[in-house]
Amino acid sequence: MLQFPIYLDNHATTRMDPRVLEAMLPYFTENFGNAASRNHSFGWVAEEAVEKGRKQIADLIGATSKEIVLTSGATESNNLAIKGVAEMYAQKGNHIITAATEHKAVLDTCKRLEKHGCRVTYLPVGQDGLVDLDQLREAITDKTVLVSIMYGNNEIGTIQPVREIGAICREKGVLFHTDGTQAVGKIPVSVLTDNIDLMSFSAHKMYGPKGVGGLYVRRKNPRVQLTAQMDGGGHERGFRSGTLNVPGIVGLGKAAELCSLGMTQEIARASELRDRLKDKLLSELDETYINGSVDHRLPHNLNISFAYVEGESLLMGINDIAVSSGSACTSATLEPSYVLKALGAGDDLAHSSIRFGIGRFNTDEEIDYTANKVIEVVRKLRDLSPLYEMVKEGVDLSKVEWAAH
Amino acid sequence: MTYYFDHNATTPLSDPVLACVSRALRECYGNPSSIHSAGQAARSAVELARSQVAALLNAQPGEIVFTSGGTESDNLAVLGAVRLDGVAGKHAITTAVEHPAVLGACAQLVREGAEVTYLKVRGDGVVDPDEVRHAVRPTTVLISVMHANNETGAVQPIAEISAIARAAGVLFHADGVQAAGRLGTDVRELGVDLYSLSAHKLNAPKGTGALFVRKGVKLQALQFGGRHERERRAGTENVPGIAAMGCTAEQLVQQRARESVRLAGLRDRLESSLLERVPGVRTNAHGATRLANTSSLRFDGIEGEALVIALDLAGFAVSSGAACSSGAVEPSHVLLAMGLTPSEARASIRFSLGQGNDEAQVDALVEAVVASVARLRKLSPVYEHA
What we know:
A: seven-stranded mixed beta sheet; 39% helix; B: 386 residues; Aspartate Aminotransferase, domain 2; three-stranded antiparallel beta sheet
């Protein structure tokens, strides 16, 4: 039995796993202590739970517990990493390198730093969404303090060559931050083999609760320093003050453990569902294009442009399926996705794109329903489109001279 | 069985709030920024909570910014108000008894080039409004004074200070983390421009807080990345935490007055029993208006930490000061600022009461304190045995 709406927007957020909820519940009630209360058992029980959660997330990414700074989410982690490094290493230089397709939490933070005297290089990406390693190497100067390139993209799922980027940064003596929000828990990520110095992650993208995330901060080779962005109490070894969100951290840890246990099967399952959806859509519909790299892609991501169809109209037509036309953070705006534009897509194609994010709880049946529904609605919308009709009649739209009204 | 008397550190969830949070965790799983129905369900939960929190403060929903907690709210208020259009040459006023979240943010402002005046308090822990008036300079842009102190419960004359701030054209922030939901917190009556709250002090979950930002007040955001919270706080909203904070706010609107009378009765029972039965006990912030639930007592010749541990072994959770600095060997900055000597400060214990406490628990606590103090004093080389 299908249940509606079908949730296929797992890049925006994920439904919490019931096992995560179960792990969290005791920490709302009987074990409700403040982890900073060092003098009574309520505090110790809370602290123990925090340390277990910290270990679970550290294990997932190949870090040690002491390298995990717990935060309120990936936006805070990205802000802490980038501003924290820029301020701490201001003596060394003022140059940051990032990419045009980063999440807003990285881009907006970089823009803010530009107002405070930092110079930021926004690397372009190829049509596949990948940064060019030679361009990166050339962009690094003796003033560069940080390279921030995301692990997996939230819109097109492109997986960057993180290991190689990390190696270049290491060779040049520059710190490397990666926004791992979409990748951690979904694909194998190791801060050791991937040469990562700082990495942001979020619980609610991996079937954990909203309101909790973390930042990996390397302790050895090199030991990374950060300027705290929130003061008061000196929690998290001075990197991030504030009472720890104990149940949230328990949830983050449990979510990390579950992702780790099931990762191999989940990658196979998600990519099979994704390919099933993709194959159906591409075989039944013409003028349909996959955005981003096919090979270097998160297994659960599909981003497709349906030419001659307005993304928003398509969304309305399939309103029993929760998908999005871009990232959630910018979904209130009607501007075309800056990520797709960075790939070189025209506004038309950028406007006609849909992001499908497949998750742990999606089934074959849901994918089939979705494919059929999208095909039906795209056909219906194209029947109403004079442009599509002209194309079908063999008119080359690029040669048409449009009369002014 | 352990009885919990440390509600100024944190509180357990009440049953209705737990029901609310677990429902939101199960059902409102969408991202509130998503335009599909799953996202809109989450958005409605957030907006309902915003109006509930606003109602507790007599604010407009648009004046509530949700954050990750009291520390972030304080940082956003203090840093955000002073950083707007540049820090250099600006002056802020605060007090020596503030929470580390405000003091830490002020220290950061000093590193960035601002000047900060830290006002002394009287022996009862209260700031003299005249001191505030005299500290105001032409370059002053912000006054930040907590509504009620987390260690002593002393309540500051917020309305008087806000009148001074208004007359001087200076923004006024009050850290209401301990006061909200415990005292009347009508932001119009208080006259504050910015007011910080934390959910986990109010029987709601950790990881959520709010900042009241009076309409028209501009702040520089602390974190960037999306247009959440009207561009005042980027990041996906903690939907269940926010929903729970709304739920608790609604409960408090109905129950606060009655509950604070009940807690004051329990607190007075605790204090009068101890003052009567234990020699050499004094009340910190004596004479000040205090939070109904808070009692800070000092026991001559006692090491507070030792008493806290003895009480923990006996099944009572209390604190020797703020949770954030517990385990620290330094005496409380709050008590020192009130003129206590370091050894008097170290001899102090904070009892903070809450929803789950009743008379029987208080009586049991009294017995345990009487016994523990007597035992510790017997071992003390410095205490003069009467």
